[in-house]
Amino acid sequence: MSSRSRRKSLRRSRVTRGIVRNGAAGGKTEPPLWLEGGLLLRVAWALVFIVAVTATCFIGQSPPSLKVLPGILARESVYSDRSFEYESNVLTQKRHRDMVDSAPRIYARDLRAEHRFNKALEFLNLRVGEIIGMEQEEVSVAAVKLPKEMALEHAVNLNAHELDAFLLIKDKDERIKVFQGIKQAVEEINAVGILRERTEDQRFLSFEEAETELQNHVSSLIGKLLVIGGLDASKDLMLAIDLDGFEEEFPALRTVLGEGNFTVGARPFPVQGVMISDLLDSREKEVSDETEIFVEPFQEAFYSLSRHGLRERHYDPAATQERALTKLAALPPVKVEVAEGELIIHKGDRITLEIHEKYQTYREEVSAGNELLYERFLLTMGIFLVVILYVRLVMPDAWAHGRRLAIVAVAVLLNLALSRLILELGHADLFGGNATLIAVLPYLLPVSFGSMVVAILAGPRSALLTALLVGLFHSAMQGTDLQPFVSTMAGAVMAAAFCRDVRYRSRVVRAGLVGGGVVALFALGFALTGGFEPAVALPQMAAAVFVGTLGGIVVVGVLPLFEYLFKVTTEVTLLELTDFNHPLLRRMQLEAPGTYHHSLMVANLSENAASLTGANPLLCRACSLFHDIGKMVQPEYFSENQSGEENPHLRRNPSMSALIIKSHVKEGVEMARRANLPEIMIDVIKQHHGTTLVRYFYMEAVRKSKQTRLPLGDKGEVDESTYRYDGPRPRFKESAIIFFADSVEAATRSLKKVTSRSVEEMLDSIFAERLDDGQLDECALTLDEIKLIKQSFIKTILNMLHARVEYPDMEKDNDNDIELDEGATIQTEIGDKQSL
Fold first, then answer.
1. Comparing C-alpha atoms, which of 663, 678, 681, 659 is closest to residue 599?
2. What is the mean pLDDT of the segment spanning 238-251?
3. How many CB atoms lie within 10 A of CB 94?
4. Is the same domain home to 507 and 592?
5. Of 43, 554, 676, 716, which sees the most CB atoms within 10 A?
6. Which residues have CB under 8 Å from 319's CB, separation 6+?
């Protein structure tokens, strides 16, 4: 065997070795720097993970114990092994509620309404004085208008008869005393308070009592009215209450006042006047009777006006509660002392909020000082050893590469941190001691968050590992009961299953909903086996579904962060990048349409081939669309974009042309980084030419080096490295498929006759040359997979370049062959295309 044949055999054997390290979307990318390192670094990261899990789940956490929730029956008795004292929030809140409920109610006065009534009195006094001073013909008009003004402006209804009583009080000072007396009477009654219904804790007046009290005030006020008289009967009497015109109705009263011989007891009629009360108490029955009749209009008018000022008080809950809270603020919280050996829970008793609080405090006392932290650290170590065994047996490829394990570790820690936060909020009396809400607390934990993230980023086996870890530590944090572990595992596994091969973000939310629904079904099952209580079971089920759906939404939000940290690209992102409206693709359509069409053809070739070889078709398609974006910098130097224009390479020497051709890789990498394309796409851009030779310009350089007399001749030996791409070579399946598809698509353009045989010969030549050149030495493609790729390419090319039926008015091509424009591409001896 010749040395050349031995090299070819050796290179082909290399293709079959190695294991492809696939990310979420397939492919191989360089891991982040913080994941690189040897065994010592991995051991260090493992210890960090163990310590972080222990701190997250157990520091300050109560020890595992029997399940105790308010409302359930105690399964066993619990005695305290120590003495301790604690402030009881339950008893303090109970005292709070009792004091608020028993606090004397505050009934507020309507001060605004009372003020409006006082304004009405002032207005009436002013208007009555104005009317009294008017001419006789104006009085009747004003007297009719005044009741309407009182009703509209002050909401006080007085009839004309009642208004006449006020008009009889001619004296200004006496009238002022009347209105002040009414105001004072109303204020005194309102100050005592009026309620529609009497209360036992307040000394208020009913409306009937207030009206009786008001009548007494009005009678007293009328009794104090002063009737001014004199001993000179020839003069008109100057009465505070004008009796002129009432002589026929009150003759005895008029005679007594006119003659001045009225006596009060043993006293004669005073010159300054006499009060109505004295007239009512007169020894002469006719005088007292007429006085009673005389004051009736005043009694009715004063009472009617005063009654408008009575205001009912209304219960003020805010003021009542504020007074109670003020008293409560001065009281210390209720303290409970528990002696050593005291019974905390009695078997068979129903757990009350007070018992639940005492038991939780006892657990916190036991865990004070982290007495059990060492045991919990050992528990975490034991779980971690089980995980190592699982990974070595089930996921050996993950053990070889730390990326998946790192994703699992971060997702688990984040999931457990969220769960611990929710548990701590529940223990911090966020639920106010509500038994139903406390029972709902375990179903508020995000059981499927971590497994969904890992399922999308690292695959189903890693997601199962995540579900196992989260379930174990959820159970450890909540107690020794298996219910948290079972429900967590079921919900997390089901959600992860629905995240498999997910391409749309809406499906992630749906997966969270399904996981929450599974947890809800387990909540229903636990409730049916433990004594179904709808008031508890239904909120638990609703909480599980809500948290599951919310977890799906949160996963959608954090996926970009995980992709950035671990340099992993999900199919969700890849599908979004295949949108032809992406700015780079839109720009390529306008600036380099030939390159754009070439990229579409490469995408079709690579996508179909990936489906047959177990590679990721979506990754191949997305990367193919962007693999030549660097050509947009100088599109005119690539033949597919020249459109019959002058070839600019004719003005360049071969080395410069080769440099321009090679630069599209570097330019593409820079453009991809500026556009924040995934790292795996950047790897494909770097690798899609490997370290192949720009053969056409290399051969041109060799030819011209022999023509040293020509102006453009290159003197000296031609350095082959100048005409090779910088690489690297393809390192994963998808990159290798695109590497071949790019060369094959270009070469097919130069075929003059497209048949199955011609296409197969062209592909054999291209693949053989690439293998002999060592381009697949770093890639784990097998020969069988290469054979499948060639078969897929043949089928796709024949479908793309099939012969069309000739129309009668068309000139026939020779033998229906497909011919390409001369000079469109340059075909080398292996069918490869080197763009000009």
1. 681
2. 46
3. 15
4. no
5. 554
6. 106, 108
